[in-house]
Amino acid sequence: MGKEVNVNLNAYVGKTISLKLNGNRRVEGVLRGYDQLMNVVLEDAFEVIDESEKHEMGKVVIRGNSIIQMECGGI
């Protein structure tokens, strides 16, 4: 079971965020929701392979235990 975190991301709901994930992966999208385990729902999401290659993903749920870093506004 995951560890609960005390974080308030309400100010970022509806804004574009960038997530650095395990495995040196990066995903960007519009934050639509989150829970106490830092699981997040992104809409219009895409995986950034490098600056010239991006894969569209649509709406996704990212598990909180795979998130290493979160930035608002993209990278």
From TrEMBL:
GO molecular function: RNA binding
SUPFAM superfamilies: Sm-like ribonucleoproteins
GO biological process, one term: spliceosomal snRNP assembly
Keywords tagged on the record: mRNA processing, mRNA splicing, Nucleus, Ribonucleoprotein, RNA-binding, Spliceosome
Keyword ATP-binding: no
Location within or outside the cell: Nucleus
Domain of life (superkingdom): Eukaryota
CDD domains: Sm_G
Job description of the protein: Plays a role in pre-mRNA splicing.
Protein name stated in the entry: Small nuclear ribonucleoprotein G
